[in-house]
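== Sequence entry ==
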Amino acid sequence: MEQILKSEIHPDPRGVLGAAAARARASRTLPLRRKKDLPESGRVLTEDGSADSSGSSWSQSLIKDNDGVKPMKIAPEGHGESVLPSMQLEPVTVQSRCTWITAYSENLYVSFHDEEWGVPVYDDQRIFELLTLSAALSEFSWPTILSRRDKFRKLLDNFNPAIVAKFTEKKINSLKASGSPISEEKLRAVVGNARQILKVIEEFGTFSNYIWSFVNHKPIVNGFRHACQVPMRNPKAELMSNDMMRRGFRCVGPTIIYSFMQAAGIVNDHLSSCFRFRDCSLMFQPV
């Protein structure tokens, strides 16, 4: 009897189906009989396996062994205690990302993909920041750049173009000596680009208006299925690059500009299977 009860309380490794099979074996081995003095609200198991119940949460089944009859409580699901272990499984939500984000990707890179990359940006300082970080791709990868992002912001006054444009030669040498995260050439390009941004703002009202004018103020949504389909540049990037270079911007080749457009949400290059694809497509602000 003790062995039979243990098989009821501790199901075999096969789980619920294994436990049900164990109970079936127990019912074949030990006959059940009706207990006569149960309250009317009780529910009991009879010899033929049927149940007599009238809505009670508790019932008793009787298992007979050599020593007599012993009651064993059985609780319906969600009521009281049960001799069967709880097998509640938490729902698992799997978000499908662009395939270049893998289980081995750094957390900063994953967060950048999930929260920023492809989101349309309209703030001049943010656009200046993403333009500068994208230019650094000629020297570093996105994970490396993102790991140095706080240092970029500290050295470049949170990418305020009005402040960076006033950096003197002494200031540039000071930043270089304090450990600039980019080369001296790139640093000087950043200062020069800040000065050009101020000129663009005088002409277009905001740097954002100028940048978004190349796509008629509406993001390009590609919806590629595979990473190999994502280009390194496109005609709009070439057009923007040429115009920026004509205005005196530096480190703004078409490949760099296309990376910038992706980061700033001017182009939505999330794969169509990525959970961010649709969200980013709906975030632009119509003019």
Remarks:
- The chain has two domains: 2-74, 107-281.
- The first helix runs from residue 2 to 9.
- Strands lie at 44-45, 51-52, 59-65, 68-74, 220-221, 267-268.
